[in-house]
């Protein structure tokens, strides 16, 4: 019985890590959405390619339109 419990614990740790990473990715994507970028897929892709937006980056009418790359 003890062996089953430890297997379950080690199995759930990667799942928790994945959920935490998705939450962090979403928080960063929302920052791009606030700069007038579409949340899906544009904002999520911009997190990968550009990280978090600077004051001068955004989509549409902002100083540097990162979607024109």
Automatic annotation (TrEMBL):
Keywords: Membrane, Transmembrane, Transmembrane helix. The chain crosses the membrane at residues 12-30. This is Integral membrane protein. It comes from Streptomyces coelicolor (strain ATCC BAA-471 / A3(2) / M145). The lineage of its organism: Bacteria, Bacillati, Actinomycetota, Actinomycetes, Kitasatosporales.
């Amino acid at each position: 019985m003890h062996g089953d419990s430890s297997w379950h614990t080690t199995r759930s740790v990667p799942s928790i890590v994945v959920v935490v990473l998705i939450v962090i990715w979403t928080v960063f994507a929302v920052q791009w959405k606030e700069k007038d970028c579409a949340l899906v897929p544009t904002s999520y892709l911009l997190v990968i390619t550009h990280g978090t937006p600077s004051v001068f980056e955004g989509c549409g009418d902002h100083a540097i339109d990162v979607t024109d790359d």
